[in-house]
Structures are given as structure tokens and as C-alpha cells.
Write a structure and sequence with these properties.
- By secondary structure, the protein is α+β, with helices and mostly antiparallel strands.
- It has 4 helices and 15 strands.
- Strands 3, 6, 8, 9, 10, 12, 14 and 15 form an 8-stranded antiparallel sheet that branches.
- Strand 1 and strand 2 form a beta hairpin.
- The radius of gyration is 48 Å and the shape is rod-shaped.
């Protein structure tokens, strides 16, 4: 087959003979071009699809991690509330004023902004995750520390409450102090192991500290007497009472009415004989009935 192509102006004529071989080659080349174009388009669409899938996976990963971190932030907020409550309780037990140490507000901070050139300034997701974990562990450690301090302060507070610091007779006066004196019956110089509070018969007697009644009995010298055990080897005795209002085994609190003033046993008149014993040894009650907040050197010596 012969193909003749004439120029539009008729100045040139091109003759081209189309053989079977040439036709097959032209068709093959055309098919190859179409296949290449189709492959290019397919690869382009596939690349776009893979990129979209990767972005979708990244978004899902971020959403999952953000949800986990939000949960951790909520847990940390709850722990901070617990720490605030513990801090307020501990500061109250320690006598710290809320104005001196405010747990409800973030402490003020400041300083110049400096960037380390060798380190990246951006905080990555793994870095944030590590920081949250460390913050949670620090919060737990501080909560445990606060709990230990709170328990210690509560124990000290309970120990202070077990010390005889309440006057056993409110309206009486010291008629005979602790130490050597002239016995009113024998006229001899003897050791007086307590303090005598003179008061009218029937005057209320209260527990000088909280404890357990371990004795409520008659004694030929003390008359009707009551012993209260306050723990740690500390015991108080209330003697010559006219009427007991407690019995052995009763748990009493500081300031609780336990008896009435009388003149039973070896007594010259209505009064309360009050003693303090530490590990079985009589001590000066004045050293315990002093002000707990401002003891004087004399009082310290009396306790020893």
C-alpha cells in the first residue's frame, strides 16, 4: 500500500509506502505508548492512595495516643487534688499557716528563656509520654511521703493528748506541792508524791488526759482512788475521792468527769490528791500540767 501526502500549498508531495511490517511496528509502538501511559496513571493513583492510607493511619495513631494521654492527664489531676488535700492536712497538723504554704495555687516561676543548640526544641510524642509517666511516679512518691508525715504527726498529736495537761480540779488550789514536806499526821519530814488540790466536797474531778481506767478501788491511805493508764508507761492517780463515776476498763477522754472531791482515807479535809507516774516512778505533776506551748526552764526541770 502506497500513501501519498500532499502539502496544502501543493509545493511538496511525500510518498510513503506502508508495508505489512511497518504497519505491525506502528501498531506495536502505539500499544506500548498506551500501556506506558496507563501504567503511569495507575502508579500515580496508587501512590496517592497509599499516601492517603498512611495519613489515615497516622491520624488514627495520634487520636489513640491523645486519648491515652488525656486519660493520664485526668489521673494526674486527680492525684494533684489528693496531694493538695494531703498537703493541707499535713500543714494543719504541723501548724503551718495556709498563707505560708498555699497548696491550691500553682507556685510562681520565671527566668530567662535559653535554648540548647545541641538539643531539639520540639517535644515529641514519646518525650511527652515519658514525661507524663515520670510525673505520675513522682506524684505517687510524694503522696506516700505525705501519708508517712501525716501518720507521724497524728501519732505525735495523739501522744500529746495522752499527756496529763488538763487541770483535774478547775476550782481548787494547790494546798500541798510535790516533794518533801512535814506529814500532817506524824509531824515527820516525808516525801509527798503528788499535789493536793483543796476544793469543796463534791467538786467535779476530770481526767487530766485520755486513757483507760486500770484501778477503781479502796486504799487504806488513798481512800477511794482511781488510776488511769495513758500508755507509754504514763499513769495518773486520783485519790481521796468521795464518789467514782468510772469503773475498771472504761475508756476516758481528757477533761471527762470521772469522780468527785472527797476526804476518804488518810486525809484531813476535802481535797484531791493527784499523782503522775512514769514507768512506776512518781513525777512532779506540775511539770505535766504546765502550758504545752511555752514551757519554762523550771517546768522542764520538773519533768526530768
Amino acid at each position: 500500500m502506497q500513501i501519498i501526502m500532499v502539502h496544502p500549498r501543493g509545493t511538496r508531495v511525500v510518498r510513503f509506502e506502508l508495508t505489512r511490517l511497518r504497519a505491525v511496528l506502528a501498531l506495536t509502538l502505539m500499544c506500548a505508548l498506551v500501556a506506558a501511559a496507563a501504567s503511569g496513571l495507575t502508579w500515580q493513583f496508587a501512590s496517592r492512595g497509599a499516601g492517603a492510607a498512611a495519613v489515615a493511619r497516622d491520624n488514627d495513631y495520634l487520636r489513640e495516643n491523645l486519648a491515652v494521654m488525656a486519660t493520664r492527664v485526668g489521673e494526674l489531676q486527680a492525684r494533684m487534688v489528693r496531694l493538695d488535700a494531703l498537703g493541707e492536712r499535713v500543714s494543719g497538723l504541723a501548724g503551718i499557716s495556709p498563707q505560708d504554704f498555699d497548696f491550691r495555687h500553682v507556685p510562681p516561676r520565671g527566668g530567662p528563656e535559653r535554648h540548647a543548640r545541641s538539643a531539639a526544641a520540639e517535644l515529641t510524642l514519646p518525650d511527652l509520654d515519658t514525661a507524663l509517666k515520670q510525673l505520675g511516679e513522682d506524684a505517687d512518691h510524694r503522696a506516700d511521703y505525705f501519708n508517712v508525715i501525716e501518720t507521724t504527726l497524728q501519732d505525735r498529736q495523739l501522744s500529746d493528748r495522752r499527756l496529763p495537761r488538763v487541770m483535774p480540779v478547775a476550782t481548787g488550789y494547790n494546798a500541798s506541792s510535790f516533794g518533801a514536806r512535814i506529814d500532817p499526821f506524824s509531824g515527820r519530814r516525808v516525801q509527798h508524791d503528788g499535789v493536793d488540790f483543796a476544793a469543796p466536797g463534791g467538786t467535779p474531778i476530770v481526767a487530766a488526759a485520755g486513757g483507760v481506767v486500770v484501778a477503781q478501788e479502796w486504799h487504806h491511805e488513798y481512800g477511794n482512788m482511781i488510776d488511769i493508764d495513758h500508755g507509754n508507761g504514763l499513769k495518773t492517780r486520783y485519790a481521796h475521792v468521795s464518789r467514782s463515776l468510772v469503773k475498771v476498763g472504761d475508756l476516758v477522754r481528757a477533761g471527762q468527769n470521772i469522780a468527785q472531791v472527797g476526804s476518804t482515807g488518810r486525809s484531813t479535809g476535802s481535797h484531791l490528791h493527784f499523782e503522775v507516774h512514769v514507768n512506776g516512778q512518781a513525777r512532779n505533776p506540775a511539770g505535766f500540767l504546765m502550758s504545752a506551748t511555752a514551757p519554762t526552764p523550771t517546768d522542764r526541770a520538773a519533768i526530768r
